[in-house]
Amino acid sequence: MSNNNSRKTVFLPLLAAFSLVTGILIGIYLPRKSDTPQNFGFIQKSDKINSVLNRIESDYVDPVNRNELVETAIPAILKKLDPHSIYIPARELKRANESIQGNFEGIGIAFNMLTDTILVISTINGGPSEKVGLQAGDKILYVNDSLVAGRGISDEDVMGMLKGPRGTVVKVKVLRKRFPELLSFSIRRDKIPITSVYVAYMINENTGFILINNFAESTYDEFMTGLRELKGKGMTKLIIDLRGNSGGVMDAAIQIANEFLKKGQLIVYTKGRIQLRNEARANGSGEFETVDLIILIDEQSASASEILAGAIQDNDRGTIIGRRSFGKGLVQEPVTFPDGSGMRLTIARYYTPSGRSIQKPYNEDFDEYYDDLNIRFQNHEYEVPDSIHFADSLKYTTIGGRTVYGGGGIMPDIFVPADTSGFSEYYFKIRPFIYPFALSYTEKNRESLKKYPEADEFEKFLDRQGLLDQFIRYTSGNNVKPDKDGLKVSGSVIHTQIKAYIARNILDYKGFYPIWEEIDTTLKYAIEYLKK
Q: Catalytic: 48?
């Protein structure tokens, strides 16, 4: 199960820096059996901490909870190290690992809270909900005999009700159009895959497009499945979209880079205080060494994304297009504690083939580090590449002799500024209503929309429906007056976004991206660049 409403923010520009930084569990080695607290010296070297806790517990004026003190102390200790060494409480660790493992245990739906009711957007193919007959458009009113509609229940609470251990059963009652009575379903929870490769489709007769949302244990297999399908359709040129990809499992990025590089070419190496230099090189088994390659990045592309982009750039294998990436070059290793909590401890730095560390600097309190993306915005870095300055000491050379820089992300070979041409004051007023309108329209017209399974025919149908006029009436009913000048600037962007979200509600991402492509300046530039 996933929350479709939260997913939509992936596509909007300039996400908050805080959301990005907290979401970066990146470049992670898989745990080793020996990774226990004792191996890290916690028992032998924590006498002073234990003495303080013991004294507080025995002599403090008021009763204290030792576990709560420990839970508070560990994050404070890790905060003294670097921005990416973090502590994860037991209640959060399972969820934190889900995106890395590529699966979770639940009933297998994407949902949205429509007018305080759980609306099923889609069921996962072959998942538990689809098997018992749950359908897109169903409204879940009861979960295990408890009323959930009209109760102000949060998305987190909904997921807590519907997720659960594999093999356990959850009962739901749903309202379905044209059925006078509620329908009851008993759904046995199972493992549900989390897709990290959102879409793979042909942009034109020879150019394929693949978007990787994050790097999980399953990403390489998903990527190769999509890539081989595109090859079968005549792909000779490829665009890999890593924008907004905050990273994940390092091995997945290495495996993907291997598909495009010649035998022996360096992909990445890591080195730490006690970690010797560890290299990853292409083994010569890559199936796509001759495909024309472009990688799209932006300020939210981090760590594993930067490993892949850096390997392609430093080996002069393809062209990097977009804006400067996040700049996260630290490698975390997961450690699990007996109570189910864990931490990600930075054990090494990674370096691109030219020797670059792309880790951006951080001070002791990390304030500027966490605010870096806002600082870039204020410095007009999203608009003008000349506002980005690298010290000569950070200069490196690619295999082909080109100059690249370290010390703060991957600078693209071709800079494309953020496109704000379709933004107006009116747009920002009505933007919060775009997805709710698209969702409402989908529910009212689901049967008609299901007649068009292909994105191009789907869009042609939507173009005949006067969506923009309907949307203006919708927002007027929500106290946003029409603005002719604002529509002149933003009408095309608004219309395209509405169509894309409706398409996603019916066709998922294979319907969304071919439409969104129309307002994606960076992608359009990459397409034209490949034609030339």
A: no
Of the chain, the percentage scoring pLDDT greater than 90 comes to 70
Question: Which of these, 399, 378, 177, lies nearest to 310 by C-alpha position?
Answer: 399
Catalytic site includes residue 184:
no
**Upper half-sphere CA count for residue 342 (Cβ side, 13 Å):** 19
CA distances from 374 to 92, 368, 369, 379, 432 (A): 28, 9, 10, 9, 22
What is the DSSP secondary structure assignment for residue 183, as one 8-state letter?
A: E
Domains and CATH numbers, the chain: 103-193 (2.30.42.10), 197-415 (3.90.226.10), 425-531 (no CATH)
For residues 8 and 110, is the Cβ–Cβ distance under 8 A? no
CB 385 within 8 A of CB 412: no
Average pLDDT over residues 8-23: 38
| Active-site residue, 328 included | yes
Q: Which of 190, 298, 314, 372 is catalytic?
A: 314
CA-CA distance, 382 to 299, in Å (whole number)? 9
Given a contact cutoff of 8 angstroms between Cβ atoms, the answer to whether 343 and 88 are in contact is yes
**Which residue shows structure tokens 């889609």?**
122
Token readout for 17 is 């820096």
Measure the CA–CA gap between 454 and 450, rounded to whole angstroms: 10
How many CB atoms neighbour CB 279 within 10 A? 12
**Distance in angstroms (rounded) separating the CA atoms of residues 259 and 282:** 8
Give the end-to-end CA distance of the chain in Å, rounded to a whole number.
43
Q: What are the distances in angstroms from CA 233 to CA 182, 221, 238, 318?
A: 45, 19, 12, 21
| Confidence band for 44, pLDDT divided at 50, 70 and 90 | low
The single residue of 196, 301, 303, 354 carrying the catalytic annotation is: 303
- The three-state secondary structure class of 349 is strand
The residue annotated as part of the active site, out of 163, 237, 328, 499, is 328
Contact 298, 352 (CB under 8 A): no
Alpha carbon of 90 to those of 26, 95, 318, 341: distances in Å?
A: 19, 10, 42, 4
Q: What integer best gives the mean pLDDT of the chain?
A: 88
Contact 458, 511 (CB under 8 A): yes
Query: What mean pLDDT comes out for the span 28-54?
Result: 58
Amino acid at 169: V
For residues 385-399, average pLDDT: 82
**Residue (of 527, 504, 518) closest to 10 by Cα position:** 504
Higher pLDDT, 23 or 370: 370
Q: Give me the mean pLDDT over the 96-118 stretch.
A: 84
Structure confidence at residue 106 as a pLDDT band (50, 70, 90): very high
Residue 33 pLDDT grade (very low, low, confident, very high; cuts 50, 70, 90):
very low
